[in-house]
Each structure stands twice: as C-alpha cells, then as structure tokens.
Design goal:
The complex is a heterodimer. Chain A has 24 helices and 14 strands. By secondary structure, chain A is α/β, with parallel strands linked by helices. Chain A has 4 domains: 96 residues, Glutaredoxin; 204 residues, NADH-ubiquinone oxidoreductase 51kDa subunit (Rossmann fold, 3-Layer(aba) Sandwich), CATH 3.40.50; 82 residues, Ubiquitin-like (UB roll); 114 residues, NADH-ubiquinone oxidoreductase 51kDa subunit, iron-sulphur binding domain (de novo design (two linked rop proteins)). In chain A, the strands form 3 sheets. Chain A has a 5-stranded mixed β-sheet, covered by helices on one side. In chain A, strand 7, helix 12 and strand 8 form a beta-alpha-beta unit. The termini of chain A are far apart. By secondary structure, chain B is of the alpha+beta class. The N and C termini of chain B lie far apart (55 Å). Classes of the chains: A alpha/beta, B alpha+beta. At the A-B interface, helix 2, strand 10, strand 14, helix 18 and helix 24 of A face helix 2, helix 4, helix 5 and strand 4 of B.
Amino acid sequence: MNPEELDQIAETEREAQSQFTQRVNVCVAAGCLSCQSQSVKDALDQEVARRGTKDHCQVKGVGCMGLCSEGPLVSTNVVSSGAGILYKKVEAADGAAILDSLEGEPVSRLVCRTDVPFFQRQKKIVLENSGVIDPERVEDYVAANGYSALIKALTEMTSREVIEQVTKSGLRGRGGAGYPTGLKWSTVSKSVGTQKYVVCNADEGDPGAFMDRSVLESDPHRVLEGMLIAAYAVGASEGYIYVRAEYPLAIKRLRNAIRQAERIGLLGSNICGTRFSFRVDLRLGAGAFVCGEETALIASVEGKRGMPRPRPPYPAMEGLFGQPTLINNVETFANIAPIIRNGGEWYAQIGTEKSKGTKVFALAGRVENTGLVEVPMGISLREMVFEIGGGIPEGRKFKAVQTGGPSGGCLPADCLDMPVDYESLARAGSIMGSGGMIVMDESSCMVDVAKYFMDFCMTESCGKCIPCRVGTYQMHRILSAIASMTATPEDMKMLAELCDLLKHTSLCGLGQSAPNPVVSTLRSFAEEYRAHIEDHKCPAGVCGAQAAEAGEAAAERETV
Amino acid sequence: MLSYLAKPTPPTQDKRWKLVDATIRRQGQQQRGLIETLHTVQEAFGYLDTQALRYVAMSLRVPLSRAYGVATFYHFFTLKPAGEHTCVICMGTACYIKGSQQLLDAVERELGIAPGETTADKKVSLLTARCLGSCGLAPAVVYDQEVAGKVGTAAMREHLKKWTQA
C-alpha cells in the first residue's frame, strides 16, 4: 500500500457512490438492531430490487445516529435537492413509503425533527462518520478521508512531530482519569524495551455507558487508525484491543476491520513502504469490571486473573509482558486521526482551558432523549439534561445526574450550571469517567442508588487488597441497613470513616473511587439519609422491607 | 519427546475439541492463551466443566488451580450448563433507574430461582448482566441472545410463559 493506491481506492469509491442519486441509510448499530432495524434494511433492499432502482438508489447499513430511544432510525438523502430527512421508529412495512418519499413529500408520521437541540448542539469529531459510513467496508471509510492521517504521519512527519501535535492538541485520556495523552505517548516513546506494545482499552465496564461500543460498531477503522498512528509515534510493532465479550457485534466488526486493513496493507509489515510494521490482535474480556484498570487489563491480556498491581512501575515503563506499553481508551484513539489531519492547534480551540476537544456521552435514565451525543467540553449540565436531553419525562422533577459510573458521583440540581470538564466535575465530587451520564428524577432514592453502586463495587472487587475487599462489603452492609430503616447514627459515623479509609488505602482506582457515590450523595442528599435513619421513611418510596431482603440476599451470595 | 511435554489427547471424540485445539495452536500453546482458549471452550460447549478445564490446563501447561482460578474470577465463564432458554436481565444503572430490579423480583417469584440458577426442569436459566450497553432502551432484557428494550413486567411474564409451557 502506498499513498497513491489509497487515493485510488478513495477515488473509485467516491465515483461508485456518485452513481447513487438517492441514498437511504439504516442504522445497524446495536441499539437499533435490537429494535429490528435489520428487517427494515432487508425490506428496503427487497423493495429497491423489486422496483429495479438499484442503479441509482443505495440502501446502506450505517453506524449509530445517536437518538437510540427512537430507533430504528433511517435517514434519506436525495442528491439533486440536497434534502436530508431522518425517520424514527421505522418498521419493515414502512419501506415502500420511504422509497416513495424520495421523489415526493416526506412520510410525515415517521419524521424525526433534526432542528432540535439534541442534534443542533452537538459537535461531532469522534462520531463524524457514525451514521454516515458503512462500518463493514473499509472503502467507505477511506472515501471519507480515512487513513489519510496515517499516511500523513508516516510520510510527512517524524514520530516526534506526531507526539508534538498530540501534545499541542491538549487531548486527555477519555477513559476517565484524564491523563494528558501527549505526555503518555512521549513517556512510552522514551522508554527502552525490546518490544513495545499499544493496547486499546475497550473494556467498557461502567454500567450505563455505551460510547466505546458505539464507536467500535460504527467506525472501527478509525480506532485502528488511531492505534496505528500511536504505534508509529511510540515505536511499537504489536497491539492488542481488549474488548468486552459482551459486545459481540463490536467484536465482529473489529475482526472484519482488522482483516480488511491487513488485506489492503495498512496492517502488517512495512506499511506504506516504510520501515514501520504493526500487527493488531483482539483479546476478549470476560466480564470483570476491574479489568478496565490498566494493570489489571495487562494481567488479563497475559491470560491471568485481572488483578491490579501497585504502580509504579507504570505500564509506560513496564507493562504487557514486562515491556513498555501504551494503553489508551477507544475514544482517545478515535480522536487521533482528526488531530493529525487538522493539526493539534485546531483541536485545542475546542473546549475549555484545561479540557480540550469534545466528549462523547451516553445519555440515559429519566430523560426524554436517550442516546449518544458528542458535545464540546465545557457545556453545562443544564444544557445536557434539559436541552439536548429534552428534560425529564412525565412532568417530574429533576433530582440528580450521575456521571462516571460506580467511580463517580451524583450531582444535584445546584450543580446544573456547572461546566462539564475534568476539573469542575472533580471539584463537585464526581469524575468525568468514560462518559456515562444518567439522569434521575424524584422517583429515585439516593440511598438506594448509593447502595446499588456499592453492590456493584463489592461484587467487582478483585479481592487482592483488604480495604477494598472488606471495606466495600461493610459499606454495602451499612447502606442496606439504612435502606431497610434499621441503621443507627453510629452506622453513619462508621460509613464516613470507611469512605475515608477506602479512598486512601486501596490499591487501585476501583477501591479508591468506590466511596464516591456515597460521599457525593451524603454531601448533597444528607436529608434523605437522615429521613431513613430518624424517621424510618424513604422520601422517594423506593426502600422498604422488600429492598432489605434483596440486599441481604445479595450479600449472602457474595460470601458463599 | 518427554511424555509430560506431549500434547494431551482430547478427553472425548467430540468434534468440538478440534475448535479448542485450533485456538490453542493459534496461541502458540502459550500460557497467555488461557482466557482465549476458555472462551472457545465455552462457545463450543456452552460451559466449562472439570474435564475441559483439566484438558486446557494440561495443553497450555498451566496448573489446574490457575485455570480454575481464571474460570471463576471472570463472570463471563460459567461452570454449569445453562438451561434450554436463557433470560438475561440488565442491571446497569440506566436499567436499574428504570426498574430492572422489579423485573428481576418478578422473574424470581415466577420461576422460583435466583440469578445464576436454572429451573429444575432445565427449561430456563436466569442471569443478570452488568450492563448490556443498550441504555437507550432501558430496561433491557436478553431472551436467548435477542435483546428486547423497554421491557415491562407483564410483557416479560408473557415471554417466560411461552418457554415454560412449551
């Protein structure tokens, strides 16, 4: 593969696409697929074949279009008029009507308005190809400027210049902690080892987060391109993608993408006629949340139990098989290609002073519009929930928004005007996390939510260090007692003490951040805890005898 | 070749062991291939029994204790065969907020089994998932690999009835 051949592929594909004057894109990402979008696509395919319009009407399966709650989504585009229409909740039987509409009026009963904040307020960098290209065809990706950043890096830039651009962009790790990506890359590039590795962390374990899944399902080549550029920058020749086994579709599309990239010579030896060689292999996770922690992830790739180890040495010095290893999250890698294409300064213009660029959020819970959104850093929570999210359904009242999964916290209404960036969220007692954002209304009890997350951490604790193994169990016991109205004020003291203990003495991030949901709800919703303990009442009407039983049963299972 | 270094023969004549052997070969019979191999076994046989663990451990030359340790550490691996049908209830945050606990309680009452168990007639297994990533469709339930979104208690009872009465 050389640059001219890649141009050739892009040119051929663009030409083939220009034959089509009518385009119908059907979302075939996991969300819409579970609403039977495949049958919609099949119906459209059949209908086009029946009408004999195959030569100018294209039906294409594409990645996530964002508004998952209204799926299956179908978008149409007529080249001559430039009119694009998004249809929601499409059924297989609607195929004919949609094809008719290409030459006439839109099917009004299915139209999904795109002039609403949900679509207008987004800024798509990571998701620019999602919902536009066919994730299973590399040609489509190449035609959309895919792999041009890799070619640019390989042919025009030294590895140091690549790292410089990434540093300039101000990109920070999108896995949650927000470590500066450029700094990480330069540490790995300076480390000495016989073999360096690049690992993509696609073990998206936070409950309520599905950004990485959507990126992998909608645009797998972009992640590969990011990994390739990273490997070139740090001098690695082997890579692994550690992906959850619970994401079969993402695995299938990644496998397919790797095969295609190998076929056209973008993975393998002497890429683009340079001395740079890179191979990628998949490793399937097996359902352990702790494997999102980098040292645990390394242990898991090595075929061991996913247990973290103390750092330093950091993986950048001693990682996979004892060699320098660069570990980045899916979304971080997905940001790389546009940064190299447009320059680090372009990226640094977006976002806030310390948090640059955009962030993909998975908006879910008690909010009108649930789905995937990409917004510039620094947008306020209010905009997220009430404009993009469309507010709380059924006229209920907003109570809290949870970010960062089990390591994050619940932010109450008075945090709504806070900008969403790494520092502000940390100050408010939560974390950016990987991008799950779950909205809660008055029907959720904060004690119950804290208990839910503690149950999660208790089950997911790997058991290596005692503060986490025993501490999460004890905290869960106290929270269950509060939820069943049997707790005493002494228990509250013990709870606060345990929060402090876990935070400061646990080995890895799981234990250190496990108290966050408790600390943040104690801070903002102390009244609810008080009501449970003193008045023996759950203001939201969630907790009761039944909840207590379920909690005890869960603890019982854990000890057996 | 020393006998303890020789590759063991599969425990049964079952053709599916060929798949397992292929994975072991692809991993270069290295210890690091343990998790990948266990994935293949589970995909082929549905679960990991002692015989399979013993075979994988011997083939990759890892202690049986380590193979067992790995198999029990990860939630995805199961040591028991599943029932004819499986019902996975997502307990991710978004689903939890939207009432997946009530769904779980309902199934537990209906079938008389806890998560991770199978009914006595081996018809239905009940499982919970940490998060399916279908948060936009919360609460989500997976009936035999098929994801259903925005599930209500009544709809789920209906679905289970089809299985238990069939």
